[in-house]
Amino acid sequence: MDIQNLLDDIVGAVEPLTLQGDVADYIPGLASVGLGQFGISVATRNGDVFSAGDADVPFSIQSISKVFALALVLAGDGDRIWRRVFREPSGNPFNSLVQLEHEDGIPRNPFINAGALVVTDRLLSISANAPTAVRELLRQETGNPSIDSDADVARSEAAHGHRNSSLAHFLASYGNLENPVEEVLEAYINQCALAMSCTDLALASRFLATNGRRSNGTSLLSPLQTKRINAVMLTCGTYDAAGEFAYRVGLPGKSGVGGGIVAVVPNNCTVSVWSPGLGRSGNSVAGVAALDEFTTRTGWSIF
Ligand code: GLU
Question: The domain spanning residue 239 has which CATH number?
């Protein structure tokens, strides 16, 4: 398989799609990112990396950070988090308040905002290097010490974060936060504002394709925990379009409103894509098409 050739082909194939969709503008710091950009990277279980297009342009990973926070909580605290967060698709927008009241303050899954706030809360409680634990993990797995939160994106989300504030206060009212609301929100917003490139993202998530093994050979997660995270990504990782994503791509994946998506081919590689134009469900239009093309041409889907 000539992966480099394939990625170069995919860049050409999806180019017209990179002008489709809309950038997320409910976070003002993301509204100025230009359409027409597309990057793709593959990191293999052996550490080889292949990249094409705008694969080295940093972008805001937003909700993709939720995967790393969950991995750190499972690594540090085992299954305890599942008493506070369910693992079912929500069937509602990622920032919905309605379901949380119906379900007595237990979020549907760790990848909607309410669930991610609970995970970040737990990370603050258990992590020695909170609130920068996610950033440190990304730096270590990529070997890139310059990965950081984009201060403008974080500031603009904080200034417009009424919904997430509501969710956090709501969770607190049900006793489902251990730390002060303001601290949880700050950690969550900074984690979402982390910026990195496709190449970094593929490398940072490689532990999901290696049964939990980190780049330094130690284990972050057990094979069972890795299986569990991949399963939740498959069912809940791509907003209210996880069924469509499974149908087209056939891999566990996690998307963010910055236009990035990371997908996992278990025991083989990770594939990251970025293109800022989002479709109606919030997933990158060109990104989903590229992953569809990738798994169709390689046969590397879990189905
Ligand atoms: N920081 C964003 C929010 O909470 C993340 C959204 C996303 O990427 O899904 O609204």
Answer: 3.40.710.10
Length of the chain equals: 303
Cα(80) to centroid of ligand 1, in Å?
24
Give domain status of residue 303, yes or no.
no
Looking at the DSSP assignment, which residues form a beta bridge with residue 253? 263
Q: How many angstroms separate the CA atoms of 216 and 157, rounded? A: 34
CA of 299 to the centre of ligand 1 (A): 31
- Ligand 1 within 6 A of CB of 156: no
Helix axes 181-192, 65-77, angle to 10 degrees: 120
- Report yes or no on 13 lying in a domain: yes
Number of folded domains that form the chain: 1
**Cis peptide bond N-terminal to 131, omega within 30:** yes
pLDDT per residue as tens digits for the range 144-163: 999 999 999 999 999 999 99
With pLDDT > 90 as the criterion, what percentage of the chain qualifies?
95
User: Structural domain of residue 240, as residue ranges?
Assistant: 3-298
> Is pTM, for the whole model, over 0.90?
yes
Which CA distances in Å does 237 have to 56, 67, 125, 143, 171?
24, 9, 24, 26, 21
- Compute, in angstroms, the gap from residue 182 CA to the centroid of ligand 1: 17
Kindly report the protein residue whose alpha carbon is nearest to atom 4 of ligand 1.
113
Tell me what the mean pLDDT of segment 292-298 comes to.
98
- Active-site residues, by number, are 63, 66, 188, 239, 257
Q: What's the distance, CA 126 to chain centroid?
A: 21
Q: Is the CB of 281 under 6 A from ligand 1?
A: no
Question: Containing H/E element for 169?
Answer: helix 162-173
Q: Is residue 57 part of a domain?
A: yes
Smallest CA separation from ligand 1 atom 2, residue = 62
Find out whether the beta carbon of 164 lies less than 6 Å from any atom of ligand 1: yes
Residue 144 CB neighbours (<10 A): 17
Whether residue 256 has its Cβ less than 6 Å from ligand 1: yes
